[in-house]
Amino acid sequence: MTEEIIIAGFGGQGVLSMGKILAYSGIMQDQEVSWMPSYGPEMRGGTANVTVIVSDERISSPVLNEFDTAIILNQQSMDKFESAVKKGGTLVYDPNGITHHPERKDINIYSIEAAKKASEMGNTKIFNMVVLGAYLKVKPIVKIENVILGLKKSLPARYHSLIALNKDAITMGMDAVKEINKA
After folding, report:
1. What span, in angstroms and rounded, lies between the C-alpha atoms of 139 and 155?
2. Structure pTM?
3. Is the distance from CB of 62 to CB of 150 less than 8 angstroms?
4. For the chain, domain boundaries
5. Which residues on adjacent β-strands are paired with residue 182?
6. CA–CA separation, 91 vs 114, rounded Å?
7. How far lies 180's CA from each of 79, 82, 91, in Å?
8. Per-residue pLDDT tens for 120-158?
């Protein structure tokens, strides 16, 4: 099993940390992983993306032109990466701020209103964990217990008190994801 993922959105949405948590989760399952971030010099508010590969085999290169899954969190990323999803692949997106929704019929498309759900939970900083939950519901490539271990590894100790909230956000995302198109 090899899963090649692009996570893309604005800086400050937790794009890079979501990728890092996913990568650490793969490590906790004894899988090979690659985590390659890309962001503009302005960081917060600018565009950011991260390529994550989780595999049972050695990874030859972290550089990809096509992806099994794209997790899209803003319109600029939708414009750039929708066409880069492999035929039969998966696109997961938050419709908040998206003006041109994905239209491809040859990929699986899922929607998660993560900004709305995070706001309902009283903490907009868990937005990325709601999205991660939606993705893991659609493609359970790592076990939730390994995601929790990944959170512990990637979050500073002073934030470990928020791990339960993050787990609740992941569960919320799993429960709230909606199928838009099945290829």
Report:
1. 24
2. 0.93
3. no
4. 2-181
5. none
6. 15
7. 18, 14, 10
8. 999 998 999 999 999 999 999 999 999 999 898 888 899
